[in-house]
Amino acid sequence: MNDEYVKTHLEMKYFVLKPSSNTIYGEASRKAMLAYARVIEEEAPDFSYELRQWINREEGEIRTAELKKKLDENPQTESEQE
Question: Of 13, 17, 4, 5, which Cα lies nearest the Cα of 51?
């Protein structure tokens, strides 16, 4: 990338993350949020805690959705469940 590209395309004040996504980008978003929470923890412990809780909720929902998908793809008969 040349400097002109960076100046015209990558300079911004805000960066939007989508932590609920079950993609590599969602994972990167959650990791970025966690890093941010760690940096601000001493200055803003409540906000840091809220960010960590948000990350935990998103990861829990993703794991639940993955498990549900596996169960839907491989349903067991009643005799297999016993």
Answer: 17
